[in-house]
Design a protein that fits this description.
Elements: H1 15-28, H2 36-43, H3 47-50, H4 57-69, H5 81-98, H6 114-127, H7 134-161
């Protein structure tokens, strides 16, 4: 059985197109530059078109975060926990270099999406089976990921530390 034909115009874009456009704007300018209007301009459509794909900027930023988490890779199988955590940290470091706007994201809750869940599962697998309980595993993963984020933030602002005022 085939689906009945859809009525109305065929969509020009996909949600993924909108997300990638917003990421391109953020990578080039900053997270503050990401607006529904700016994403629409980048795609050559009206701002109202974007609302067909995302309800607003907050949801767009959540989707952007989840999308870039999908760029992360799993450590090679068979690595010990130290090497696996190192691989995770190095991959995250590269992600923050590709997308420095991630350091501007402030949320009261984690972004919940399939790529973010997969990222967390990869991180937990790195310390699974080494004798830690669930809370300790979460703490170790949080420590490593927070360290990478903090180190990247410090590095990106380091040149400003030594600048003389005025």
């Amino acid at each position: 059985m085939t689906a009945p034909p859809r009525r109305g115009p065929r969509p020009k874009l996909t949600t993924a197109d909108v997300i990638r456009a917003a990421i391109t704007v953020a990578d080039a300018e900053s997270l503050d530059a990401v607006t529904v209007r700016r994403s629409a301009e980048h795609l050559g459509v009206s701002p109202m078109t974007i609302y067909t794909y995302v309800p607003g900027r907050t949801e767009l930023v959540d989707l952007m975060i989840d999308h870039v988490h999908g760029e992360l890779t799993a450590p090679e199988p068979g690595l010990g926990w130290r090497a696996a955590l190192t691989a995770i940290a190095e991959d995250s470091w590269r992600m923050y270099h590709r997308h420095p706007w991630l350091l501007q994201v402030t949320t009261g809750r984690p972004t919940l999406g399939p790529n973010t869940f997969a990222k967390y599962e990869r991180e937990l697998r790195a310390v699974d089976g080494i004798g830690l309980d669930d809370l300790e595993m979460d703490a170790v993963v949080g420590l490593v990921t927070s360290f990478v984020q903090g180190a990247r933030a410090v590095r990106s602002t380091r040149r400003n530390w030594f600048a003389r005022p005025g």
